[in-house]
UniProtKB/TrEMBL annotation:
Species, as recorded: Paraburkholderia dioscoreae
Domain VOC: 20-130
Keywords: Lyase
Pfam families per UniProt: Glyoxalase
GO MF assignments: lyase activity
The protein's name in its UniProt record: Lactoylglutathione lyase and related lyases
Keyword Transmembrane tagged: no
Length: 132
């Protein structure tokens, strides 16, 4: 349902609706290594850095956060899917930085061009762009 907030009753308050994702926070046990990985992909640091316990990267209106947690790496839990302006250019950038994407960019039957990459802590990130 993509409807705007709807009234709870004719005279009552409106029901709240979820509007967007502000941030995704991923755990790392090695902040310097994780920061290098995300910087190599072009994520600009908004707060923190390699020697901090918390780092935030800004992209669009959202953030990708890293937090030091001794329990990392994690078991596979799913993936974060981020839209980018050019999937193939980002794939080439990853290769040039010595990173190892899971596969070459491909066109999916659901209408996106995409590839996956796994960060040093086992978090799977997908970079995608809708096909037009």
């Amino acid at each position: 349902m993509n409807s705007p907030a709807t009234p709870a009753s004719a005279n009552g308050p409106t029901e709240p609706r979820i509007e967007s994702i502000s941030a995704i926070t991923l755990a790392t046990h090695d902040m310097p290594r994780a920061v290098l990985f995300y910087e190599a992909l072009g994520f600009p640091i908004k707060f923190g850095g390699p020697q901090e316990a918390f780092t935030s990267f800004a992209f669009g209106d959202s953030y990708l956060n890293l937090i030091v947690d001794a329990r990392a790496p994690v078991a596979w839990w799913g993936r974060v899917i981020l839209y980018v302006s050019d999937v193939d250019a980002l794939y080439r950038k990853a290769l040039a930085a010595g990173l190892k994407p899971s596969f070459e960019p491909s066109d999916a039957p659901w209408g996106e061009r995409y590839f996956h990459i796994t960060d040093p802590d086992g978090h799977e990130i997908s970079f995608a762009k809708p096909l037009r």
